[in-house]
Each structure stands twice: as structure tokens, then as C-alpha cells.
């Protein structure tokens, strides 16, 4: 494009110079001091003025070159720093160069008319050839750019599909290395008591939740804080004058503590391991609608859990079996009743529990 512009200027100037060695473009007067201050206040006006003077310098320099005269005043392209500085001395600099070039044209001898006409014909042909070459070159470059863009789009589409498949496998199909942030489980539990024939226990229901502490506080990676609620089904049996009499107890037990979940094995189809927990429990119970028969017990418990599940975030469930030890260092588990002969049924300080449950890991993270 720059070559084409120079050829065009040369063609126009040769046509003009065929009639005399006059400047093809008159240099305008230097702006007054007040006008210069106005240019310094606007980046756009300042840049336009400098480029206008630079264009004038290029035209006069080309005219001298076509006349076979080496210009004494050199023309330099304005730099970005000059345009950014917005110093009025830059305008004066290019105005001074333009004035010097104009004087050189005026002082030059008249050029031979025939030579200039021949030069005009030569430039006209060169301009036509240059335009044709530029059109062909532009079409070729455009086709190359389009082909490259199409290839790039195809590549990006394939890369997007591959990444989407990888993300799906990572986040939805295989998350065995993820950390569970929060989980909740439903359990069925039973206590193994040494109450003999006087106290029995049917399976009861419970719920258990766990939160990963490391994700909340930034330490103790792999340690969970857990809470469990149990509703055991205790029954007391009495032999009153040869007749068996049974009472159902309404019981609520709570437990909180810390646990460490350790995976023993991981494969494409199964993840299994142990969950070791230590906590504090408390509970109380009473015969339904008869609060004079009651018990209150608290202490420490140890849970040893074996779990297994699928390593898939699409099925974030685990099945587990839990063996628990409940122990109090200070008090026994005593069922206090108002039944004569069975006022205190002492079961001792230590009891065992078994639970079977299903855990839902509904919040997992790979980070």
C-alpha cells in the first residue's frame, strides 16, 4: 500500500511538473501561538496537524526526487512518542522541514518537458501493474487467512469436544479422589446390652451428618466433624405374679466427635475403606406417658466403620457397617422404674452397638 501511494504521488507530481518547476503543494503558514496552545490541548488536533505537515514534506520530497534532485532536508516519520508528548515544537519542526523543501523546489531549474512526459507514461503503467498485483495478492492473502481460520475453528471444535468429554469423566463419572465436604446418612441400629431378660432392644433409626473440617478451617486434612442422632427401641420386661409385663421406652441419644476416613482400596468400580471416629454421647429415656420411669446416661464412644461405594459422582452413595463402643467412666446405665422389684435395672458402664446405613455424599470437591 505504501508503494502504491508513492507511485500515485509521483504520477500526479510528474503531470504537474510537466508545466513548470513549481511546488505541487503550498506550505501553509505556521499557526499562531494561541493556535499552538489549542493544538496542545487536544491529542486529536495535534496528531492531525503533525501528520498534515508530514504529508506535505513527503509530497515535496517526492517532487524533488522526480526532478533528479537530492533533497537537502531529510524527512523523518513522526514517532508515537512525539505525538504523545503534544509539544508545539514538534509542529514547528515539521513546518520548518516543509518550508525548506518548498524553497528547494522553487530554486530548482525547470525540468525537460519530454522527459517528464515519458516519466508520466512509465509511472502510469507501473501504477496499473501495481494495482493489479495488489488485487491478486490481497485475494491470495484473504484465501489463506480464511483457510487458516477454518482449520483453527475445526481444531477448536475438536479440542472443545475432547475437553468436554474429559470434564464429564472427571467431574461426573470418576471422582474417587475427591474430598467429601458434607454428607448425611440414614442408619438402622441396635444395642447389644447385658440386661438379660429384663431389657431388650429392637432395631431403631438414626441420622448422621459429617463436615470436612479442613475445607472450613484450612487444617486437619481428612478429618471430619460428625453429629449423630439415635432413637433406640428399648423395652423392659417384668414378671408380676406369673404374668409378663412389657414397657416401651422413648429414647433420644446424641453424639458428636471427630473422625478420620481412610480409603483402603480404589478401583474403577469400587472404593472402600475405614472410618475411625471418637466422640462424646448423651441420652435419656422414659416410659411413654410415665416420666417416673426414666434413665439418663452419657460418656464416650468409639465408632469403627467399614464403608464401600461406587467411585462416581453420578451415584454419590456409600453403604457402611458400624461397630460402636459406648462407655462411661463415672456412671452406669440404669433403668429406674416404679415397678416393685425392678426399681433399678443396672446394665453397667459399657455397651456395644451395631449400625447399618446408607450415606449420601452430596457435596464433593476435587480441590
Plain-language structure description:
38% of the residues lie in helices and 38% in strands. It is built from 7 helices and 10 strands. It has helices at residues 2-17, 33-40, 43-66, 80-85, 88-107, 113-173, 213-217; strands spanning 179-192, 199-212, 223-240, 243-266, 271-287, 290-309, 317-327, 334-336, 344-346, 350-365. Strands 1-2-3-4-5-6-7-10 form an 8-stranded antiparallel beta barrel. Strands 8-9 form a two-stranded antiparallel ribbon. A hairpin with a 7-residue loop joins strand 8 and strand 9. Helix 1 (2-17) packs across helix 3 (43-66), helix 1 runs antiparallel to helix 6 and helix 3 packs parallel to helix 5 (88-107). The radius of gyration is 48 Å and the shape is rod-shaped.
Q: Encode the helix/strand succession as letters.
A: HHHHHHEEHEEEEEEEE
State the share of residues found in helices, binned by percent.
25-40%
State Rg. 48 Å
Q: Major β-sheet, in short?
A: 8 strands, antiparallel, barrel
Strand order, main sheet: write it out: 1-2-3-4-5-6-7-10
Number of helices: 7
From the spread of the alpha carbons, the general shape counts as rod-shaped
State the oligomer: single chain
Q: Tell me the fraction of residues in β-strands, as a range.
A: 35-45%
Please identify the structural class as seen in this structure.
alpha+beta
Distance between the termini: 55 Å
The poorly predicted ranges are 14-20
Number of strands: 10
Overall average pLDDT: 80
